[in-house]
Amino acid sequence: YGKCLRLFLSVIWLSFVSTQDCKVNGPVQDLNVDHTGQRSFQVSWRAPEGAIGCFLEYSICVHVTGMEEEFCETQNSYRTSWSSTQGVLPCTNYTVIVAAIDSNRNRSDNASVTLQTNSICDEGYANVSSSTTQFNITELESCTPYSVFVTSVGPEETTSIPAGSRFYTEMLDGPGPVANLSLTAVDSVSATVAWNVPEENPSCASLYNLCISENGTDGETCIKQDGSKLQWENISPLQPCTEYRIEVTPIDFNGELTEGSSIMLLTVNVLPNTTEYNVTNLLACTNYDITVKSLGSSIQESRNKTVTSYTDVQDFPRPVRNLFAGAIYDSIFGGATLGAEWVAPEDLTCIQHFRVCNTKLESGEETCVQVDSSVTQLSIGIPLDFCSNYNLVITSLDGNDKSYGEAAVQVATSPGLVTNFTMIDSGYKYLAVSWDISMPTDYCVEEYKISWCLSSSQECPSRPYYTLPANTTVLNITGLNTCTTYNVFVTAIGNGGLGSLESNIFAKSGGGDNLGAVSNLSVSSISTNMAQVTWERPAYLEACVDKYVVCLKNDVTQKVMCDSQTGSYTQWYSGPTLSACINYTVQVQAQDYSNKMGGNATLTFFTGKNNQ
Fold this sequence. Notes:
This protein is mainly β. The protein folds into five domains: 19-116, Immunoglobulins (Immunoglobulin-like), CATH 2.60.40; 179-310, Sandwich (Immunoglobulin-like), CATH 2.60.40; 321-412, Immunoglobulin-like; 418-508, Sandwich (Immunoglobulin-like), CATH 2.60.40; 519-606, Immunoglobulins (Immunoglobulin-like, Sandwich). The protein contains one helix and 39 strands.
């Protein structure tokens, strides 16, 4: 009775409040922007300070910032928030003005807030003739705002202040129905539903119209919600053990309702003699908390008893498809790792992870990693053993690690890289190479493949291969050009024809013992203390010349000085080291890449007299 009495007295007291004393003393308080979308926004505020029971309504006016034209509407004083419903453009600044109106039609001071709707603004431009006064803009997106600016360009590229206008493109078709409307929570007095954006023209949906009605009745309750929010939370109060119909309909930017989607829900309540209940309309492969409590005759509640249950899937998803795996070899460090790629199942509703396990068949040693269901390729960084066989298995798992099928493939590894690959000898039109194979993998080598080509040749990729027995690690390569650099390759071949990565060296064939002498040795310049001599390369085995050795002898003191220089230079300069009026003998010899010397060429010259 106390509650009823206080309510009664309150009503009586309010009925005697004089409208003459009711006056708004100031603007609304704390006007804020709650959220913005591309084509919608919401603002909220608090009532003016010190005013009680005086408000008849609120006035809300909206205009594009900087423009005079505005849209206004009023709403009841018990509502202190407002959402835009139509005509809102993305990427646009709006000013919202809110004022309170009392029962005497007095208006409070304005409170205002400025906001910008969301979007990403793309730019483009075109130059047109000065005689053109209209222009067709094409290839625009529907349901999208655009700003157009026109600027006059004068002499020397001077420009006027741009004149601008805003517009939005029309819809070819409105947004389609929402996708995947589902019930995410329900109890005896409330429920929550969620959905995804429409699959057709989702950018044309600015708001959602949310309606609920008791099944079999005509009464319906609807609200509007911003297009960026994809769930209707805590729909209440509902009646226990009652079936409801919920409909979600997109609203386009013109404020028009499009096609709706609906779902039925039944609030939960069971009779005292019932000990089981079927919960329906749940999502597959999802954890749900189910709470049971007993109610007394006066709606007294017992403590909650909650159990977590996981829903199953109606159609068993397929395992991954087109699984491919292979060893990835490191040409620098010589190791190997496993790489794999696959195609995910078409239905990933229940699959949240893939477990990838690689097992060495010879030892049973297993390595496993778990990746997200969005991953379709993977490199397992743990090193593989050479000359081994592995079994790779990929298992599809849900959130509780329940398996939904697996796919498998076997991978074999090759021998390791050959080691110590080097040239051990060279001679006239031949060279000799040798190599080793690492001990852990020598048992599985069945043969070697070796090949070579000129280091400057463009035909190296198509060079022929020669096969050698597994016990052969030395090879004399004959029939080569003299003193020529070759690129030599060797590969170890194991079980099943699997080859290691190629190892290669650059090696140069020799020129024999017949390197000729230089020709046309002469003095090109001479003075009292310096001289310069020149010559031509040997006529025979010219390509074998690696360097030249030049020796200079003082014929008076018999002192000999020798110097060497690269084979690409055919002249030598003594520097200011000679004495005047002395006979000198110079000797030049060519030397090949194996340090064998060619014939001698000598010349004697006399330095000039010192005029001092």
